[in-house]
Amino acid sequence: MSAGAVAYARENAGRFLDELKTLLRIPSVSTTPEHKGDVEKAAEWVASELRRIGMEHVEVIRAAEGHPLVYADWLHAAGKPTVLCYAHYDVQPPDPLDEWVSPPFEPTERNGNLYARGAVDDKGQLVTQLKALESLLHPTTPKPGVSGAPGSQDGKLPINVRVIYEGEEEVGGERIAGFVQEHPERLKADFALISDTEMFAPELPTLCVGLRGMIYTELEVRGAKTDLHSGMYGGAAPNPFVALAQIIAGLKDRDGKILIPGFYDDVKAPSGDELAAWKKLPFDEEEYREKEVGASKLVGEKGYSAIERTWARPTLDVHGIVGGFIGAGAKTVIPAKATAKVSMRLVPDMTPEKAFRQYKEYVEKIKPEGVTVEVRLIHSGEAIVIGTDNPYVKAATTALKKVWGKDTVFIRSGGSIPIVGDFEKHLKIPSVMMGFGLPDDGLHAPNEKFCIGNFHRGIESLIEFFDEVGA
Ligand code: BES
Ligand code: MN
Ligand code: MN
User: Ligand 1: residues within 6 Å at CB?
Assistant: First the structure.
């Protein structure tokens, strides 16, 4: 079966890429209210593609708030396993806009890459799933006169498939978390396929087996009841920016160690086997510093490699500070309030609840006099490490070997995909995290890209994977 499907994917490679571009033109930024209609449009586009390729029970699931889920299934492979395919069609905001070589929502090809916001995270990867399914569902011998018409497909999938796509992964995934909890039967499957991760290096087939969790917070500091003239009141009125800076400076020491009491209590160290495997990965810390990070020095906790620090240690970062005077020129003001966006990445066996409580208590304790602090939780998700001892991981490595000609490496990632923990907890199924991003793809950054070769080989990898699971 896969030979026909792979041939079909190759014949239609140009159209597949064009259709990805159509999705990339929709600015489905989930965090900004102005783009709510665009997120909706992207959901509709994905749903109509699922219908067109012959998936069944396609539904755009809307709730009173948030962005829709897109569901579909094809459950006619009697006796075969069921996969739950996951990806997200929302994207991060594109700013800073003037850093983009070509506009973020005008997908542009350069040097074998496709540049656009969402190219790799995660529309490109979502479309690898759609195209693998389309290639498998398409008849190898079209019926005369009806080829291409909706519903004319007489192809069959080698396994049963359910699809669940979300439009708010980048803002914490509240809707999908609720859906998984309330309707586990609608997502009943033997395993999940997550297409939202990256390969460790170009040409190196990779499965991701661990993700960090996170708590994303806002820290709001208030001083005077209103903005004040800084000459008249400077020296007497508290300055919330200075207080905020003092609080932030108290959260971490110069070596990157988080100073919140008890924060590291539940951190579980990676196993000796895992650490040994990480040492064998093709990774040069100096090259990573220079080419990927581009800073004069890497920072972080003493005694850990950069891989350990990003995959297996908790961290704390500040994403933005809002308030006060930020226009051109000078304004002499003591602002009444200042807000910082602060997140912490968590690792097993930390819990978001405990981490948030410890953080909040500590902030209250170290805040300077004269200001009040409000600590708000925006979203959170648990860290996960998944087992590799199951037939689906085996099938994945076999499929990847066919397409890439190499043995698969197992890695963790420092990023977070909140729903993966919920799949394990509520659906009780393992996940296979097979993604085709590259380390320099620029996720969440200007000039995000997807390697076009990886898009096509990703599609072939998924075709082979589904076939292998069905065999
Ligand atoms: N796809 C990423 C997560 C990721 C990145 C996994 C690299 C593996 C390798 C995902 O879209 C993402 O960015 N998630 C957010 C989490 C969210 C709750 C805001 C993240 O990690 O910041
Ligand atoms: Mn993603
Ligand atoms: Mn992302």
Answer: 121-122, 169-170, 172, 196-198, 208, 214, 379, 381, 413, 415-418, 443
